[in-house]
Amino acid sequence: MKKLLVPAAAGIIVGVITLIGQRYLPINLNFLANSGAVWLVPAFLLSFFFREDAKISITTAIICLLGCVSGYYVSEAIFNQHPLTFSKGILIWSIIALAAGAVFGIGANWANTKSNPLKYCGMNLLPAVFVAEGVDEILHISDYSHMIPAVVLKIAIGIALYIIINRRLSLKGISLACFIGFSVLGVVVYMVLGSRVLV
Question: Is the pTM of this model over 0.85?
């Protein structure tokens, strides 16, 4: 149980830093504070390094992401000096945290299990989500024309992560297939969220 305090605390800290980043980072770095992919990094890594079973990995990721949500909205209410209310935004991002936490938690567990045939799927979730987020923004470039370098950088981060994580296996068919497949699936998810949910 004590182990779950770590992802909760990490999530809250990331949520607070997100608010600070949104207010003070320059336009071409502001994406670091406006990116769902960035929130997924600590959730995935904590689930990976705890080296527990799948249920603990999923729980760790979910708690971290819910911590991000609570840290962001509580600090936003404090910073702007208004009462914290249970808004539509909190509900939506909490639901997304549950779903994304389940996916990236189990993915981290797969990536950490050498004998698991789904290992490559888990390894390539993080690189794919950065590329997917960047590609989605390119598809909606009219909304992001003021920050094109940031969009390109986000895709570059995804590709760099892919190479760093897979190393000599970067050109292996299964690694490429997982990376490209999850990137495409991620774009679809972002488009659905953008058109049906986050409006």
Answer: yes
